[in-house]
Amino acid sequence: MPVSLKPLPWKRKKTNFIYFFLLIWTAQELIAQDEAVIFTVEPGEKYRVIEKFNLSQYRDGRYQGHVYRENRGIYETSRSGTDLFRISGEVYHLEEKAKDGFKTASAVTGSEETEFSLNAKGTMLVPGSTYPRLRSFPTFPDRAVSPGDKWEGGLELVISSPDSSERAVLPQYCEYTFLGDDVWKGREVFVIQAQYAVRYHSGQSRDADSFLKALSGKHVVSLLIDKETREFLLMKDIMEEDYQYQDGSSLREKGFLLTFYKGIELLDRPGLTMNVQNSLKDSLNESFKERGESLDDQVTVETRDEGLALNLKNLHFEPDQALLLPEDKPLLDTIAEILITIPERTFFVKGHTADIGTMESQILLSQDRARMIVRELSARGIDADRFLFSGMGGLEPLGDNSTEEGRKLNRRVEIIILED
Question: Is 111 helix (H, G, I), strand (E, B) or coil?
């Protein structure tokens, strides 16, 4: 007879934070004779998913080199029923993260919000063509599975046009095999292998037909699940895809995709806000008074949905350049000292300008200034790969661009301590 097992309790030290696993693949039943397991999905209250692509790319039959991409999603969960969850989040699309073997900050090339439903077997219901780009993967059967057992399931793959302006959702078919136990980085894990082919020909989807003529490829995926905690650790996808587009161009990518999953400790927002404000006052209040300036006119702290934001409202740059003047060095010294005390979080630096000149020039200037702030903070001892940065130009104004006072409000840099 099967012996019922409950999820193992998570032991943690006393802390102001509450820890939530990303995904707990709960072993509900175990049969001693053949180690059969029932897998189910239970998302944590808040979690992060990072996709890292390392691909050889060929365009129109010509080798283009290696491509490194990263998508980073931050998700929140609410329960809609006994075995049904509502997931919402934001996904950041990032540029290459390493250069010449050194860690660097990542430029955010775009972001998008997503919301979908997920049940205990892994099946998703996602409206439209938003993220996740791979839906209902993995999925699990209702029965217990033993090493060597197989099952089948459907999935959906989101594809994009060559210029990324259009998307389509393609249904595919996947076969799973439970391989049993293994050890990964000193941890005992369950290993599941999944294989699916991607196939498409014109006429199968109106959305895809607008840009895609044919698609072929294959994926062999290894999924690792911690045996003790049932935490979903890693998914490694050995992949190859070949796109033939309606405009006559082609794209072939071959390599691997690593997907990492991690639960998030929730920020103690009131406590962190107080600590940041007190640190700023203790270090800078007197020096700003001597200059006849108010600290609140220079930097403010506010909570956002995505985390805690430090709004640097009056940084001094050379006109129309990303060169920071020496008078702001003490402010950056203090901010670096604050950020160093906040472990494991990602810092998102956003540059803003007034709406003057062309949109392209605004975006480039604000991005260069955000990158400069990242360099300054990294030089003060914070690992560069903890930073994301982006230039917003004049797209997110705080004041009226028709007045000098309004334009001054709009020229700013934000540092957001992400709850990721």
Answer: strand
Residue 216 in 3-state DSSP? strand
258: helix, coil or strand? Answer: strand
More confident residue, 296 or 213: 213
Name every residue whose Cβ is closer than 8 Å to that of residue 338 and which is 6 or more positions away in sequence: 275, 276, 279, 280
Distances (CA, A) of 36 to 27, 139, 144, 174, 413: 9, 17, 5, 21, 55
Structure tokens at 191: 């290993």
The pLDDT tens digits for 297-328 are 889 999 988 899 999 988 888 888 888 888 88
How distant, in Å, are the alpha carbons of 2, 277, 367, 418, 419 from that of 309?
51, 12, 18, 8, 11
pLDDT tens for 137-159 read 999 999 999 999 999 999 999 99
Tokens 């600290």 identify what position? 295
List, in sequence order, every beta strand (DSSP E) within 249-330: 250-263, 299-304, 307-312
- The distance from CA 27 to its chain's CA centroid, rounded to whole angstroms, is 28
Which segments within 294-419 are labelled E, that is strand? Answer: 299-304, 307-312, 347-352, 387-391, 412-418
10 Å Cβ neighbour count for 360?
9
CB atoms within 10 A of CB 48: 20
Distance CA 176, CA 199 (A): 18
Which tokens sit at 330? 């003490």
How many Cα atoms within 13 Å fall on the side-chain side of residue 159? 30
pLDDT at 29 over 80: no
CB 377 within 8 A of CB 339: yes
CA distance 247 to 132: 27
Spatial contact of 189 and 227, defined as CB atoms under 8 Å apart: yes
- Closest by Cα among 153, 420, 126 to 261: 420
> What pTM, to 2 d.p., does this model score?
0.81
Asked if 204 contacts 242 with a C-beta cutoff of 8 angstroms, the reply is no
pLDDT in tens, 91-115: 999 976 555 555 678 889 889 999 9
Identify which of 130, 199, 221 has the alpha carbon closest to the alpha carbon of residue 169.
130
